[in-house]
Amino acid sequence: MKVYFDNNATTPLHPEVKKELIEAMGMFGNPSSMHAWGREARANVEDARSRVAGFIGAHDDEIVFVGSGSEANNTVLSLFVCASNQCIPGTKMRSSIITTKIEHPCVLETSECLAHRGARVKYLNVDRYGKVDLDQLAGMLGDDVGLVSVMMANNEIGTLQDIATISKMVHECGALMHTDAVQAVGKIPVDVAALGVDFLTISAHKIYGPKGVGALYVKKGIPYCPFIRGGHQERGRRAGTENTLGILGLGKAVEMRQLEMEAEEKRLASMKAILKKGIEERIDDIYFNGHPTDSLSGTLNVSFPGAEGEAILLYLDLEGIAVSTGSACASGSLDPSHVLLATGVDAERAHGSIRISLGRESTMQEVEYMLDILPKTIKRIRDMSTAYIKGGTHAASR
Ligand SMILES: *Cc1c(COP(=O)(O)O)cnc(C)c1O
Question: Where would I find the Aminotransferase class V domain in this sequence (predicted)?
């Protein structure tokens, strides 16, 4: 059996998106061209823009298509430095940025880079469930703060933040608010007006669309500085000939989410509940990470002390099951997850964690298969580990 439980890393194309992309594959016109080929491409790009805008309650001209969620996040953070250096006429932004310790690396590493370029960056703590400390935010907000960036849903543990409340606090102090909503859009209702955000990040491949395309919501009237310069595309907000097929795929993915999201997310939540209960019943000495209720319906992060996350991943892979570990394997690093550490989990428990993320193709049979394989896998790894004593060193760390 082949089981893909890594939907927070990326998702398979929705069959309808795939169909539309195959049909559109011959569309090669440049949307900037005025002839028929160009107009066809332009019409498709603008159609996708309306869909994306409509899905989050934005106006069409508040949507900028970009190359990825990472690019959207880089754009917002870099815009800030650009604005504080008065690159945008008439705008002098304040010099501090606030973000959180659990952001995606594309926010954290960009923030570190900005700190080297003169910005003051402050990082918010989270509680044991991964919720941002609002008292700490209130204390940090002052007239030096120009921008606050807090993710809406965490990719590793699924915890949701109260973005509307945070936006309100941020605006009261006169700063701008950005949220990385890559894991939220298409899974929970997102309305930019209700959230009160100035910038919001979307990525297509996390919602059954193609890779290498995303969208950035930029509220009307908000200072803006392009990250990629040298072209009039996207009203001068993102240079470079548009990824027409990618954008078309994003539009279709959003359309399908609009139709399926509500029922689908309920289905995932009930599968997760069964998975959670099954793990609890069949495996000793486990800990669930993330918020017990305020969480993405398909995301389950669990720690198995005495079993390395990488070992679990590889043994499950041998059985045809794909999950992920919190540690940033992609960067070749074996550091424990920064997200789990921020929630106060110790390094050993963080190392013994896996993320199971369900998606629209996940089935109950797959959940049952996982509940059959996982207990054996954990037992096998723990039996091999001389260091593991149940309730020993781990009991003390509870
Ligand atoms: C995947 C992800 C990103 C990056 O999006 P890409 O389109 O892959 O660059 C950013 N933030 C979060 C929360 C993510 O899950």
Answer: 3-369
